[in-house]
């Protein structure tokens, strides 16, 4: 059996752990620069606040009832780790799928004990971390995902639900479930399925896998088998390596300062390099872009980008920063108020399948090995001791490109100077 453990309203739940006064109140967590709502409590959903709603467009009478908080990713990441640590006490097979979801394998465990086991696990997660979770059980990841959704939405299951693939209950539910609700079926795929007369999850389950593979891909074929209860989708198929990596961010305030832009580009290129190394890839070009606020009609408009070819395929942050900075120098225009800049790594290839052109510059094996060890050490230090423990260049304390997070709560679990204090 496979279980999907999903943290309920995760960002909001993390905030409620350290501020119990938020329980039962409409709470929303905002995106970078306090722009849009990216996480919602059940109470704020009931007020009609949509996911992705711009904060400034929320009606005043609704906003007065809500608590809107800035994103606190350091806290959320650490709380996610703590939840995973508890899950690992119940089974050694834990695959983290996202910051708030993990797949667990209970292979070898008696099936008739799993409901009680998962309820005990759910209780321990809540007791040890304060985070409420829902658990879906089945013989495949896709059915476990559906079961988790039911466990979360239907109170009768008390947060834990098992779907037997061939039961009458499963058949009845899948006959009512639109294909758009199935994990891995995007809107465009759903539209194409409708042309084949497939609109529900049950119709997809009963379709010919080989026929669907001809019209879609091997992933769609596997989804059919998953709906039948066969576990055949590796998580890698749902989290494929990216073909491009973009890192960008709107500034906390408009700036004309070239130094602000240079620091932002350096930070973005370093972060992109970290992401690239995580997926064991190499980049062969980098695009740098910047733009003004298109809604400010009173200011000159400017949007520019440039692609800088790299001398050789690399994941070394120093190479990426050097190329990105050179691109900035070419497209920067003085006298302009900039709102956003970013980088995109392009022409990505696998680290182990690099192809060299006849005219490409090549690094010696010794130099490449030395550079890889340096980057691995940098990533390890930042992973173990906190983000930006080691970085390329030191940003100024006061700059325009830092995030605006006026309502961020303390980073209780990762910063000594922000640790919670008890008063009597």
From TrEMBL:
Cross-referenced Pfam families: DUF4113 (PF13438), IMS (PF00817), IMS_C (PF11799), IMS_HHH (PF11798)
Gene Ontology MF annotations: damaged DNA binding; DNA-directed DNA polymerase activity
All residue ranges annotated as the UmuC domain in the record: 2-186
Keyword DNA repair (UniProt): yes
InterPro entries: DNA/RNA_pol_sf, DNA_pol_Y-fam_lit_finger_sf, DNA_pol_Y-fam_little_finger, DNA_polymerase-Y, DUF4113, PolY_HhH_motif, Rev_trsase/Diguanyl_cyclase, UmuC
GO terms of biological process kind: DNA repair; error-prone translesion synthesis; SOS response
Keyword DNA repair set for record: yes
Cellular component terms (Gene Ontology): cytosol
Alphabetized UniProt keyword annotations: DNA damage, DNA repair, SOS mutagenesis, SOS response
Signal sequence region: none
PANTHER family per UniProt: DNA REPAIR POLYMERASE UMUC / TRANSFERASE FAMILY MEMBER (PTHR11076), PROTEIN UMUC (PTHR11076:SF34)
Family: Belongs to the DNA polymerase type-Y family.
Protein name stated in the entry: DNA polymerase V
Organism: Vreelandella aquamarina
Lineage per the UniProt record: Bacteria, Pseudomonadati, Pseudomonadota, Gammaproteobacteria, Oceanospirillales
